[in-house]
Amino acid sequence: MEGAAMGTPPIDLDGIRELGRELSNWGRWGDDDQLGTLNLITPQRVSAATRLVRRGARFALSIPADENGPHDVRTSGRFNPIHTMTRYRGDDPHGRLAEFRSAEDMVILGTHSSTHFDALSHLWYDDLLYNGVHHESALTAWGALHCSIQNLAEGVVSRGVLADLPRHLGTDFLPPGHPVRPADLDAVLDAAGIAPEPGDVLLLRTGTLPAQRRGADVGAGGSPGLTWECARWIRDHGIAAVCADNFAVEVLGPAGRGPRIPFHMLAIRDMGLLLGELFDFEGLAEDCTRDGRYECLFVAAPLNLPGGVGSPLNPLALK
Amino acid sequence: MEGAAMGTPPIDLDGIRELGRELSNWGRWGDDDQLGTLNLITPQRVSAATRLVRRGARFALSIPADENGPHDVRTSGRFNPIHTMTRYRGDDPHGRLAEFRSAEDMVILGTHSSTHFDALSHLWYDDLLYNGVHHESALTAWGALHCSIQNLAEGVVSRGVLADLPRHLGTDFLPPGHPVRPADLDAVLDAAGIAPEPGDVLLLRTGTLPAQRRGADVGAGGSPGLTWECARWIRDHGIAAVCADNFAVEVLGPAGRGPRIPFHMLAIRDMGLLLGELFDFEGLAEDCTRDGRYECLFVAAPLNLPGGVGSPLNPLALK
Amino acid sequence: MEGAAMGTPPIDLDGIRELGRELSNWGRWGDDDQLGTLNLITPQRVSAATRLVRRGARFALSIPADENGPHDVRTSGRFNPIHTMTRYRGDDPHGRLAEFRSAEDMVILGTHSSTHFDALSHLWYDDLLYNGVHHESALTAWGALHCSIQNLAEGVVSRGVLADLPRHLGTDFLPPGHPVRPADLDAVLDAAGIAPEPGDVLLLRTGTLPAQRRGADVGAGGSPGLTWECARWIRDHGIAAVCADNFAVEVLGPAGRGPRIPFHMLAIRDMGLLLGELFDFEGLAEDCTRDGRYECLFVAAPLNLPGGVGSPLNPLALK
Amino acid sequence: MEGAAMGTPPIDLDGIRELGRELSNWGRWGDDDQLGTLNLITPQRVSAATRLVRRGARFALSIPADENGPHDVRTSGRFNPIHTMTRYRGDDPHGRLAEFRSAEDMVILGTHSSTHFDALSHLWYDDLLYNGVHHESALTAWGALHCSIQNLAEGVVSRGVLADLPRHLGTDFLPPGHPVRPADLDAVLDAAGIAPEPGDVLLLRTGTLPAQRRGADVGAGGSPGLTWECARWIRDHGIAAVCADNFAVEVLGPAGRGPRIPFHMLAIRDMGLLLGELFDFEGLAEDCTRDGRYECLFVAAPLNLPGGVGSPLNPLALK
């Protein structure tokens, strides 16, 4: 295979703009909307999704938030989570030893440095964010005034459907730069017996980062993931959110001509689509393979962060 | 009412030790157990709890994790959450402006400084933590090796039952130092039509901190909350976790003779009981009053923090 | 005295622009200069200043960098320094106890939240920073590419001259909003027997914040300090830096018409003047009063922070 | 050369204890002393050191405090400095754009993660710190109550003498694990025309870490540095502080039998000797080679950190 993202059709900025207008959800849920495609998860969908739980099995979909995270601050500017004890011998708050002892700790977290949701204020182009708000009005040193992650404080609760691509392709993980195209999504979900429904959360397993954490040689080069074409597929199926176990949901090839992350530009800014990154589906995928059911109750509650443009997260799948 | 915690019977360290032995869950779920009373939430309980969702209504049970938090670092040593933008004009990672723009941010959080769970490694006495592990083996500068919050990565999912004490007493919030005793719990739950069951998460509403956030004068003095007697009540009913909208779940009176937080000592160390603090039940309580149903699906997933002795949290209630 | 900053003549944005052009040092030390008035401190001045040390007395000019700092993050967005132990019982790096024990800690510091220097990249107007560089070229998410504090890594070493205003006026500290005008500077230095020379560091004592730290009631309202007129006085005398024991060197009155910090605008952006804030001159001032010598060797080395727009600092005075 | 620290004579814990008693400075400057060997820098020494400045040349002795620091948090538990902009587009504190614009930033620093001094509370053995204080009294979650770095707030000002070992040996940097023994110190200083005097700050250049920062292959294995024998040499010459451009001042060989850092144990705990680490002497050393003068005015002011067990630092050398 020559070229890491072989098979990804090219798109330029004008192409993105045109497709963005076509797929746009601006105004669809009101001029003041800050939720985007999460509007597709109606209370009925929430309620129906809870009916998917049969065995009471729970799966954490997060990677450990620690210094072994996937970032190299020297190249990406994102540092891995820092966790430090601040008390562990057990002085009481005034240094005197009380009859009990206690321990405390703290975390320093880039909101995008471990498993996380991107707030819709995370990314834009042509000066405007989702729903047409100018970035200078939306984003201040004091946080996002528009589309902050706090809008999701009540959580994302819906049906999760697992697209387990490596399993479908009979491999442990997708190779570097492997593009996932709409037909691939159709095929993997079809084989899983899943017909996508409006409000679904698409759980995209590539297997790459989890394999890397386990010490596997996953190859150099870009991340496997969705091509920009999948934006229309997502729109057509009414998907409310896409969560993936890679860096950026979308395929990352070698830096070349054209915009580097066209899917992000269309998804976050034009469609108002919620993206989740650096997930871990290993445990869930194993269970799905075992019982042949590729759907679950998905529950993810970002921290209640006023002005946040993202949030660390520990999403759950229940079956 | 004279004395902030009037009506709280005294207990000394020997009394705690004796009661602790009686209520102890050490060994009950194995010598290596690190989950404590969460063992009471069986998969069947998880599954049954999801059946409580009827309308698909969602409630965030967290306070905003921001600088308006309840701590004064000068007196308590706990600082309020710090949220700061680290990029908002949109340079790409190498300072060059790309065709898109993005924003990023970070948070610095004491794990006990906003809505949180206490890991069972948070507190102990007589050198031993829950299940008899010595604090020097359990707690290191690198985090908790025993009973870290990471044991809860798969989340706490069970029935939540709301004990709305101020509503029951016809007030907006409990007065400073108001003790909540076993008979009070019986009365408020009985009036709500709730019969506690093993594995339940008790949601204790005092109304105090939320009222204070809204600007109300809640009086000086200690926090209202559970007396140490409630430990036995909790054991008898098989409660898996207690979450409250105050500082410490339990009543805090003026510093006086005797251990200051006897309930914590019994609950965390002897019973292995999960405690959640600084919750906000205002929205949920309003809804419960409206529809007369004081139970919900409770879902709370702490961050996936290796070695954490607590975790920031955005718990959800679904009805 | 009516009006906090009574006696401060008004100036509007156009007035600042005009005076800025007059006082401008752009190009004076080359088109690429990033040091501004620090160029006035020649090696000869450095050497001469060291001759001022007679007794070998040393004075720290910093306030403690701790949670008792002067900021209220809820109003100013600046949080006070956070210092936390990260190890104190003494595990070795792998949790095993070695034959020795050690303790470690960390600090989280806003670079302007305690005693600090402002880098010349800290403030600008009309889009251009000192020496005419556009703020979008100068400032990125990765730090300042122009006029970062790292340019001062070799330290500021020169003669310091103390303008002890409260002592001169026979009071403990200047009242709120008290304006210090050029004639006041002349008077106080003249009384101290100091003739300003090019390259001098002006140490401006108001006494206000130190008094507040000691618990004194310093009154409400703005900070006493320099009026914008002093910019010309500073230019005329070749002052290389001004350091003060208040928030902003300059006088802060009640928010009203006109630019709020005109002196900053002229000093940092047009003159390239180094400003130091939140200093503490109490010990030095006492000593100067005692021996009648109001000059010292001033040595201040900001941290070696690539891209920093300021730096925490512990400046020294030697006599 | 076989064995990284070839030539280092072995010492065991009992040997350290015995030598520690011999070299001990406990009580020498009073039972309450917290300064240790800094007492050797009398005001006369401070004053005399300022006379060493002839040309007004200044040298920063720090490495950049940034993410390119020498630590790998995954192995050492120490993270490199984090610097992040918190404002750079220039909103005023309430999000409204004022007539000026400003930028702000913050740093998160382990106090030992970049160029730093070790406070005397940083390390101990047999439960007692310098001057016989028990570690449980000295060190709390609130910081060091004994021998905190704040005791050094007035700075360290004395003669600095450069021991430029690689230049003396005609190499760019010392090889991994190269031991520096008392005779080596005598030889290098003698060749430099330096006779050590009480109160001197010994500046130990190995060249290793600076070479590594420049991209040189410095070899694997431990750090070159002082052997424990040098403790007596330092005591005999009345050296007040030792600063080095390596991790730990002393030689680090492969983990083997015996205490790993015997020099630290003797120096910090028994002698109360100030150690500075991760310095950079490259610029100073070049200058010394050029003019043949290996002495300078050394000025280093740690941050004013109450309770700190170390401090980031930007030390200066003046000639």
UniProtKB/TrEMBL annotation, chains A, B, C, D:
Pfam families: Cyclase (PF04199). Transmembrane segments: none annotated. It comes from the Bacteria. This is Cyclase family protein. It comes from Prauserella endophytica.
